[in-house]
Amino acid sequence: MTHRTCSLFSAALAAAGIFAAGAGFASAQTIGSSTDVFKVNYFANNVAAAPDATVRIDNPGLTYGNICAMVYVFDNDQQLTECCGCIQTHDGLRTLSVKHDLTSNPLTGVVSNNGVIKIVAAAATSSACDPTANVSPKSNIRAWATHIENAKGAVYPITETEFSDSSLGATELANLQAQCSFISVLGSGHGICTCGTTEPVPPVLTPAAIAIFGTGYVAGGPGLAAPGSADGNFSLISCPAVACGSKPFVTLTGQYPFPPWLPDTAAARWIGPDSGGDEIAADAVGVYDYRETFDLTGFSLGTVVISGFYATDNSGYIQLNGVTVGPASSTFTSLTPFSLTSGFKSGINTLDFFVTNASGGSLNPTGLFVEMSGTGEQ
After folding, report:
1. Which of 33, 36, 206, 260 has the CB geometry, 3.0–4.6 Å to 140, for a possible disulfide?
2. Would you list the DSSP string of 63-97?
3. Global pTM?
């Protein structure tokens, strides 16, 4: 036995005496109902020549939330050799290697060939599971282990059993935490097992603004563009005029069609097809397609919402990625609200506002006014 092993073993014995003394004051009764919170199984023939054994853990989702699997690994001589706490998501399967996760980093430096694995299902109070203190047993968990049986010739047969459900006493829970705490404090990194592999942990999503802007903004926002300048974010995809430009312009104010158009606001400005924004003209009758693109890379599509208000001269409707969505607009004297919550795709999306300019008199302007913003989680 090495000097390190002797020292740690002696300290462990001394600590165990303290744990046992303290436990003498604890009740021998089980903790609460204790049903379905304490799982026990064994491992054997954990030697280099034998194949690896595995432990698989599942949270069936009784409370449809995360729980902790507090894992305690004992040598067959009753010594706690490794311990760790593993977060377990509902309906997820965690796989641990006996050789690499549960026995490769023992407190004493001596790998156990045979031993016992105990798992306590506990409430998850944070992103980390601490097996050393404040473990609050909570149903429920399921676990299975493969077993490396005695070799038959050069072959080690493998079997599998479910972990047994055992009653968890207050004394046992106190000792498990105390011994694991001793390992954590004095083991210098030894004695801490690892949690193997699992399904990807659901990312923590953070609300974020989507880079989408209403009409009349400079490119990329957030400032409004000057009247008469080109809109920085919308493109004019098609129009009935022969000389249709690729960009709409911010409509000049202080002249017709203000009124009868709604006035600009601090959140948007009217745009139209005429260069320089002068809408004192007879714009061509027909359909104008105003398009803005926006990028949803990194966003959780189910959380995306784009909402706002729009007005059109004369009538209009919205398409998201080529599909008609939201309510139609039929006026330039009031705003039509809209809210889009589906139909999005990862990456670049297109939002088109189709505006129909009806026939009119010598002054027949057309235009689009949109106030909008978008949010999502990423």
Report:
1. 36
2. SSS-EEEEEEEEETTS-EEEEEEEEE-BT-EEEEE
3. 0.52
Average pLDDT rounded to a whole number, residues 285-314: 96
The encoded tokens of residue 252 equal 């000049």
Shortest CA distance to 371 belongs to which of 279, 307, 294, 319? 307
Report the number of secondary-structure helices (H) and strands (E) in the chain: 2, 20
Q: Which fold has domain 30-186?
A: Hypothetical Protein Tm1070; Chain: A (2.60.290)
Please list, in sequence order, all residues whose beta carbon lies within 8 angstroms of the beta carbon of residue 234, skipping any fewer than 6 positions away. 215, 247, 248, 271, 290, 291, 292, 368
| Torsion sign (Cα): 42, 45, 46, 51 | negative
User: Do the beta carbons of residue 89 and residue 27 sit within 8 Å?
Assistant: no
Domain ranges for the chain: 30-186, 207-377
What's the pLDDT at 2? 41
Cα gap 276→291, rounded to integer Å:
19
Q: Which fold has domain 207-377?
A: Jelly Rolls (2.60.120)
Instruction: Name every residue whose Cβ is closer than 8 Å to that of residue 219 and which is 6 or more positions away in sequence.
Output: 232, 233
Give Cβ neighbours of residue 7 (< 8 Å, ≥ 6 apart): none
Distance from C-alpha of 63 to C-alpha of 165, rounded to nearest angstrom: 19
Q: Do domains 30-186 and 207-377 have the same CATH topology?
A: no
Under 8 Å between Cβ of 363 and 278: no
For the cut 60, the answer to whether the pLDDT of residue 21 exceeds it is no
pLDDT number for residue 8: 43
Peptide bond preceding 106 in cis form (omega within 30 of 0): no
